[in-house]
Amino acid sequence: MDNESQYSGYSYKSSHSRSSRKHRDRRDRHRSKSRDSSSRGDKSVTIQTPGEPLLDAESTRGDDRDDNWGETTTVVTGTSEHSISNEDLTRVTKDLEESTPLECKRFLGPALGGCLSFFALVTPLAFLILPQVLWRDVLEPCGTPCEGLYVSLAFKLLVLLISSWALFLRPPRATLPRFFVFRCLLMVLVFLFVASYWLFYGVRVLEPKERDYRGIVEYAASLVDALLFIQYLALVLLEVRHLQPAFCLKVVRSTDGASKFYNVGHLSIQRAAVWVLDRYYSDFPVYNPALLNLPKSILSKKMTGFKVYSLDENTTNNSTGQSRAMIAAAARRRDNSHNEFYYEECEMDRRVRKRKARLVVAVEEAFTHIKRLHEEEVASSPKHPREVMDPREAAQAIFASMARAMQKYLRTTRQQAFHSMESILTHLQFCITHNMTPKAFLERYLTPGPTMQYQQQNGRGRQWTLVSEEPVTSSLRQGLVFSLRRLDFSLVVTVTPLPFLRLGEEFIDPKSHKFVMRLQSETSV
Amino acid sequence: MAFTPGQPVTAVVQRIEIQKLRQGDNLILGFSIGGGIDQDPGQNPFSEDKTDKGIYVTRISAGGPADEAGLRMGDKIMQVNGWDMTMVTHDQARKRLTKKNEDVVRLLVTRKSLEDAVRQSMTRP
Predict the structure, then answer these.
(1) Compositionally biased, Low complexity: which spans (chain A) (predicted)?
(2) Pair B66, B30: CB distance under 8 Å
(3) Distances (CA, A) of A487 to A28, A58, A285, A287, B113
(4) Do the Cβ atoms of B32 and A525 come within 8 Å?
(5) Is the ipTM value over 0.85, yes or no?
(6) Contact between A285 and A258 (Cβ < 8 Å)
């Protein structure tokens, strides 16, 4: 990818300053990290056509990428006078993303569906009311059977209304890249039904001013029946069909290998993607880019072992012998890197445990400084006037004694980006209010929680890109692989079908459980 | 075959000589033993006295060396190659019988029918 030529839409990539690339990478890493941990409660998934090189300008691959990238790229630059450096562009796109208004496209689908269903519900009433309004005097009176039909019509409409409210009137949680096939099918079906009923109504009833009112009422009742059946179909297609598990999805995060297995039913790829993302936010530990790489000391030693080459034309025996010796020495030296890795890890563990011990002790001691004041105590001890605090003040009072230990611990485990002082104080206040023990307070910091824990609620969506080789409305199959890409990591999902189970039966008579003492041990010689 | 502890045991024995059969890497005799001072004597189906902790033959493989030599199921082994078998653990008994450098084991076995036969012949005038 480094040597590909890139042209027009991405021509801004050409005009970057090579020297500042390192700084740009580092800055972008921080920026995207902060973007990840801020805002957005909803998710939106957009598709990206396969085959295009994934151009994430804010990719955080870090400093070990080849820095001489720019020298070997051939680019065709556009004919613009001024060149915008990449930094400006990322800043602009970031501002744009954060300040876009709510996408109206998000609400288009539900709005359409709502209109259609309202129309469908009002139609039977219209069928009944129109003859009464237009040619009431000509109508034949209709006795008891009509009243029965009225009642059943009313109840069926009520049931339709309530179940539509219960099932379909929910705020959408994701926008999918392609049409949701089943939903479209159902909307088309409803539209066709209602339209054809109106057609027949117009031709057979309104035109000749039909006088048999009972027939009209029965006609309206049949429409309501049909709508009920369509709703049953909708229930089965949208809600029930995918409940029986049929496939096992393996979801692996590309950066640190965190993986989980999920069982899903028959879904299309895009719906499965939304399903996986739902689970991702509460099951996967939060992505911490600081925890990824081997320490630099180990990697650099590994790299410098092999740069032995001589460009001499006439190599004497002496020099080849020397270079061979050097290569052998380098090969032997290479063996030590795993050793160093092991010791480095042990040292890291020890450090983390030491800091953790200090933190736990500090928090325990801090919690002993305050206690909850009960109502009776206020009156019973007038001679010891204590200062009464609300939870916020109490939290602030004891925070100072544990702040240092907490900060050091967070730094050692590289979590300091996720917890600001304000958030720690808020959490402390929360724990104090709910009578939690120090251990419960620390639970949030000792283990990296799921990503959901670090989200702040916001109306904006979360942007994920679904990358797949198959069209995303096709349903899941064995061996399918698709990935959900975010700016700096991606989730790779593999689909395998669940095995077919052959369950056999074996009947054991409860009376058949009989035992004898074992005879003396018998040895054959 | 009752015995009183501390008193020498008297029994009518039969001498049986078994040639070990070579089967692959092992030398087998073709019978199974049970009993021993570390085993439970009450389980022994062949002994008359249920406190007898001696070594008994529990099974004979048909056509094997023991079968041909005349060993019968239920025999109590008193001696093997001169070594006593009345007061040994099960494992010791097994070891005495399966020594690799011996081709032949000479057993002294006793059974109820032997004693009956002797008594019968003694009471007959």
Answers:
(1) 70-83
(2) yes
(3) 11, 7, 17, 12, 94
(4) yes
(5) no
(6) yes
